[in-house]
Amino acid sequence: MKVILLEDVKKVGKKDEIVEVSTGYANNYLIKKGLAKEATSSNLNEIKQKKGAEQANAARELAEAREVGKELKDKVFVKKMKAGDDGRLYGSLTNSDVADLLKSAGYEVDKRNITLATNIKNIGSVNAEVKLHRDVTVKITVRVEAE
């Protein structure tokens, strides 16, 4: 019997795959537990529409990320921090600080998607890498100034 898996099932297949299993296994285990449904023409059409919508959504997200990347590429963000007379910061500039800078400028980026070469402990400019999407990474400039 052909079934469409609704979840990943060990030794059978992954979600949304169409697999051939014995009728008893399909009826008594997979369908009964809600792990699969019978592969009828209407269910197959539903899966095709779902995959098409997912692909369109992924393409839209990629386009949005590229657009935001173009906006961020040329911008310089300024962070004012407490520093001593010799230019050393009290503390350091971290991923969280850069994420807060981007958030205040209207860009929502998770701090885990921001990469600094090291934690910045001196006044000056530094490049940070921001991952907006799996395929879109942008380098921005952060200038640290004394308060």
Summarize the structure in words:
The chain is an alpha+beta fold and 147 residues long. It folds into two domains: 2-64, 3-Layer(aba) Sandwich (Ribosomal Protein L9, domain 1); 70-146, Ribosomal protein L9, C-terminal domain (Ribosomal Protein L9, domain 2), CATH 3.10.430. Helices cover 35% and strands 33% of the residues. It is built from three helices and nine strands, in the order ββαβαββαββββ. The strands form three sheets. Strands 4-9-8-6 form a four-stranded mixed beta sheet. A three-stranded antiparallel beta sheet has the order 2-1-3, covered by helices on one side. The chain has a two-stranded antiparallel sheet with strand order 5-7. The radius of gyration is 25 Å and the shape is elongated. The termini are far apart.
Topology:
Layout: E1 2-5, E2 18-20, H1 23-30, E3 36-38, H2 41-73, E4 76-81, E5 88-93, H3 95-104, E6 114-116, E7 120-122, E8 124-133, E9 136-146
Parallel strand pairs: 4-9
Antiparallel strand pairs: 1-2, 1-3, 5-7, 6-8, 8-9
CATH topology group of the largest domain: Ribosomal Protein L9, domain 2
Q: How many individual helices?
A: 3
Query: What is the CATH homologous superfamily assignment of the largest domain?
Result: Ribosomal protein L9, C-terminal domain
Percent of residues in helices comes to 25-40%
Low confidence ranges: none
CATH top level assignment of the largest domain: Alpha Beta
The CATH architecture name of the largest domain reads: Roll
The computed structural class is: alpha+beta
Tell me which oligomeric state these chains represent: single chain
* Count of domain modules: 2
Major sheet size, sense and barrel closure: 4 strands, mixed
Please list the strands of the largest sheet in the order they lie side by side. 4-9-8-6
Report the sheet-strand fraction: 25-35%
**How would you spell out the order of helices and strands?**
EEHEHEEHEEEE
What is the residue-mean pLDDT, rounded to a whole number? 92
Whole-angstrom Rg? 25 Å
Q: How many strands appear in the DSSP assignment?
A: 9
